[in-house]
Design goal:
single chain, 240 residues, alpha/beta, Rossmann fold, seven-stranded mixed sheet, two-stranded antiparallel sheet
């Protein structure tokens, strides 16, 4: 659904997903996107697990974990409006007694040991701050590296961190950090075509920033096809 004249950007709408009915707080940025669908397509939740989702947005992955049999689920986000929509979604799906949403950064609002952390976080690299729902720092790794450290401190031995990682977000750096405290395996991957126009619309010079990153070995994407493409990957790390 795009923006249009006369549309109330604050009005809630409901659409169907593979999780259930999802309430949106208006702006299209809060939709459950293809990355979310890709994530829960390959995510395995074990019955009785204690789960946290940092950067939960409207809570789609949190709801999926609860529906898949998690004992408890805590989703966190810095955006109070997104959290309000997440709480609406929990009620709409009959999961309000099993999913809690808290305001705060990453895993800081979460107490107690965890069995599973699911992390689909902003990690778009950019030469300057852009939309906070996308921006992950100059090389895209700011939140990814932080959640790896925090998850390692919260997860029980054998617990899992499932992390979404695009190949333009310095994957070598992220995977090196991930492998220090986790046994890491790749669950799935898919190509994601993009264009100069798409990225430069976010902030001028972003495409050239990626080209420079690639030259330094901090980003990976192909330029063989009609348009460039990076890889969207899902990794699972098991806490040693």
């Amino acid at each position: 659904m795009g923006k249009g004249e006369g549309r109330d950007e604050t009005a809630a709408t409901v659409h169907r997903t593979t999780v259930g009915p999802i309430v949106e707080g208006g702006p299209v940025a809060w939709r459950a996107d293809h990355a979310t669908a890709f994530f829960h397509q390959h995510l395995v939740v074990r019955p009785g697990e204690r789960v946290a989702e940092p950067g939960c947005g409207t809570g789609v992955l949190s709801l999926f974990c609860a529906r898949a049999g998690a004992a408890t689920v805590v989703g966190t986000d810095l955006d109070p409006v997104a959290l309000a929509a997440a709480r609406q979604n929990a009620v709409a799906n009959g999961l309000a007694d099993r999913v809690e949403f808290r305001e705060g950064s990453l895993l800081e609002p979460v107490t107690g040991p965890l069995d599973l952390v699911v992390a689909l976080l902003p990690h778009r690299p950019a030469p300057r701050p852009i939309n906070p729902r996308l921006y992950g720092g100059p090389d895209g790794t700011d939140l990814l590296l932080a959640v790896i450290v925090q998850a390692a401190a919260r997860l029980v031995a054998g617990g899992r961190l499932v992390l979404y990682l695009n190949s333009i977000a310095n994957p070598r750096r992220v995977l090196a950090a991930f492998g220090q405290t986790f046994a890491v395996r790749r669950l799935a991957g898919k190509p994601r075509p993009f264009t100069r126009e798409e990225f430069d619309a976010l902030t001028p010079g972003l495409f050239d920033h990626l080209v420079a990153q690639k030259a330094r070995g901090e980003a990976e994407f192909t330029e063989d096809g009609p348009v460039p493409a990076f890889t969207a990957d899902l990794y699972e790390g098991t806490r040693r």
